[in-house]
Design brief:
3-stranded antiparallel beta sheet; two-stranded antiparallel sheet; single chain
C-alpha cells in the first residue's frame, strides 16, 4: 500500500509538471487581443453595475414607480425640464442635506445645484472627448480632466480607483450609444454665504 505522503508527493510533482508544461506551451504566444466589441460589452457591464443610469438616465413614472426612460438612455438631466427651483431653507452652511428632483437627474446641496451630464456621444458633451480625456476626468474630478469640479452626487473618487482598461471600456460603451441631443444646464453655484464652511 502506498503511503499518504508518497501519494501527496506524486500529486504535487504532477501538478507542478502540468503548470510548467502549460507555461512552456504558452511561451512566445501573444495574449489574446481585445476587440472593440469585447470592450463595449465590458463597458456595458461596468456602466450597469456601477449604476450610471440611476442619475444619468431620465425616468418615466409607472404604477410600479420610476423606471429608466430607455428612449433617453444616459442622456442626462433633460434640458426641457429647465432648472428646478430649490425650496428655501433646504441648503445652507448649517444644513448638509441634499435633495433631488423627481427623476434623480438634478441634485441640490451645499455645493449648489448639479445636473447629471449627457453621457451620449452628442456634440453637447462627449462627442469630442477621447479615452484619455475621460480617464483624466475620472482621475481628477474635473470636467474634461481640466475644467470645473465634477459635483456631487457623482462618485468620481470611486471611479478613479478603476483601471485604465476598465475606464476605456466604459468610454467605448458610452461612445457606442446613439447620440441624444440634450444640452444639460450648467451647475448653479451656492448662493453667497451658503457654501460649506462659511
Amino acid at each position: 500500500m502506498v503511503s499518504r505522503d508518497r501519494r501527496r508527493s506524486a500529486f504535487t510533482i504532477c501538478l507542478v509538471g502540468s503548470v510548467f508544461s502549460a507555461a512552456v506551451a504558452c511561451a512566445g504566444q501573444e495574449p489574446p487581443r481585445t476587440t472593440k466589441a469585447d470592450l463595449i460589452k465590458r463597458g456595458f457591464y461596468l456602466v450597469n453595475v456601477g449604476g450610471c443610469g440611476d442619475c444619468h438616465t431620465p425616468k418615466v413614472f409607472t404604477r410600479a414607480g420610476p423606471k429608466p426612460d430607455r428612449s433617453r438612455l444616459l442622456s442626462g438631466h433633460p434640458a426641457k425640464a429647465g432648472v428646478p427651483p430649490v425650496p428655501p431653507g433646504v441648503i445652507g452652511p448649517d444644513r448638509w442635506g441634499a435633495i433631488a428632483n423627481n427623476d434623480l437627474t438634478a441634485w441640490a446641496g451645499p455645493w449648489g445645484i448639479s445636473y447629471a451630464a449627457n453621457l451620449t456621444p452628442d456634440a453637447s458633451d462627449l462627442k469630442s472627448w477621447t479615452p484619455e480625456i475621460f480617464i483624466q476626468a475620472m482621475r481628477t474630478g474635473k470636467h474634461a480632466g481640466v475644467g470645473r469640479d465634477i459635483l456631487p452626487p457623482m462618485p468620481w473618487m470611486d471611479y478613479a480607483l478603476m483601471t485604465d482598461d476598465d475606464l476605456r471600456a466604459v468610454f467605448a460603451y458610452l461612445k457606442s450609444l446613439p447620440p441624444i441631443s440634450n444640452l444639460v444646464p450648467a451647475p448653479v453655484p451656492p448662493a453667497v454665504g451658503t457654501s460649506p464652511g462659511k
